Amino acid sequence: MASHQTYRTMLNNVPSARLDNCTTSENGGTHRGRGRTLLTDLYNLNSVEHVKVTRNSHGQPVGQEARLLAGYSGIIARNANMLHIKYESWHNMPDSNKNQALSNIKERFALEVSDAYIKKALGKKWRDHKSILKKEYFKKPISLEEKLQNIPPGMLRYQWEDAVRFWNSKKERKPRLVKKLDAFSFLTLRTGKKDGTPMTSEAAEIMEKLKDKKVEYEATASTDSSVNFEDIDNRIINEVLGPERYGQVRFQGSGVNPTQYFGSTSHQYMPSGSQSQAEVQRLKDQIRCNIHIAKLGKLAAFFKKAPLKVLVFSGATYSERR
What we know:
Layout: H1 4-12, E1 19-20, E2 23-24, E3 30-31, E4 36-37, E5 50-53, H2 64-77, H3 95-106, E6 109-111, H4 115-138, H5 144-149, H6 157-180, H7 182-189, H8 201-223, H9 229-247, H10 258-262, H11 275-297, H12 299-305, E7 310-314, E8 317-321
Parallel strand pairs: 5-6
Antiparallel strand pairs: 1-4, 2-3, 2-5, 7-8
Helix pairs in contact: 2-4, 3-4, 7-11, 8-9, 9-11
């Protein structure tokens, strides 16, 4: 667990916006005696003082205190002593670590939002932090020894060495695993423009989710012989495109489901789709169609031997694209 001095250093390194503070005591009473609170002030709160964070009807934190919560959550997510970056994904992070991070936040905040919401937010910030470290410190064109010596601020040597050695071993075994998913990799590339960029921002989000899931399954497949490579494509598509269609409301942020947003009769009414949403749906249909073609005709091998032909779903018909 991080020392007091480590926390103080981390807090001081974060730009602090002055926010109106509302603190609550253990008996439930609230007061505003402390005035405005900075991120650096959170460390000095006594045991009976907490910053109260309210929520809206969708269970999301609101108000200026929500910004303070987000800033502090980012600090916790970057704490390698608590949430180590060596894990392949947030799902692989031990529950004990997640609970420790949640408890640390609750020591300073009186939360109306759910524990699940806080953990989900921590996971997002942890993934972003890990991605930045990989880009700025690991993916540089330098030797492995140089990478091991290039320790990011706030991390101990053994923590960084564990992460670098894990990423390096994953990089070495990647070609063998990617080869088995060539068809899937090709399909994700075909959902963009000619220059390879996604057609819409939502398309980009879907492609990012597909890639993240692919990484998770690659890691699992390398250590678990029960994972069937032939079934990986379908599992990834179903996880990313299936539940998302009915389990959340687009543009309404994290944690909002159709029942919360539209009420119990949400299945009877949905807002009219924008051009962007229609494009995303077309992309989903195209991906599902191409996955089916790939399984039946071994699409990956075909593309190496014949001119490119892809069946594109449009409305109720299929057309051929060369």
